Amino acid sequence: MAEQLEILSAEAHRNLAMHRFAGQHPHMVQIVLPEVEAAASCCPVFLAKSPETGRFALVALFGFAPGEVLVEGADTGSAAFLPLDLQRQGFFTSDDNIAVDIAHPRFAQGASIALFDETGSPTIAMRAVQRAIGTLMGSAGQTEQFIAALVQGKLVEPVDISLSFDDGQTVRLDGLYSVSGEALSAIDDNEMIRLFRNGSLQAAFAIRASLRQVGILARRRNDRITQPSLQSWA
């Protein structure tokens, strides 16, 4: 369905309501630097190259294939980590304004969460959307700088992960990168202090440590092979 973007306003959208979320939770979501440590607490965090630009982005992995959600609570929107990009579903920026895509499934029939109250002020739910958009926009440059520092410091390495399951399937994770533990340990003291002070070191270690989440998700997938699961959070 084509986008139908409109500048959001209390007057024009007083009666517009939204679902908490819409559609199926994606198996991979792009995140920004302030989200890394929270994401790493429950799912693997990688760097992935954009097929269009060839540039790295930070991504959180919720499953191993499209349509698969393995992080506990993610399929109902109640996981320990909820990406900002999903919190702002259906909302975008247009210059200094927030725009709303009224054709987005989040605003489909049956939506009951108001965007504005009777006084025309944003509701609590709408303020959460505004904060999500603000953080995403405000962290874009910081995230790019972090990724550039990892690349320039030769801290990025490709990951080669192949998983086998009890149903005979083998899943390979291709095109993903992580932070090299060996390269991290070789950083000189001055660079270590610099990275620590700007918050990059903590995020780099969190990305590296999040690799252990791959095994956790793999065990969860194996446990669910013969158990149908609900994968909708509309």
TrEMBL record:
InterPro entries: SapC. Pfam families: SapC. This is SapC protein. The lineage of its organism: Bacteria, Pseudomonadati, Pseudomonadota, Alphaproteobacteria, Sphingomonadales.
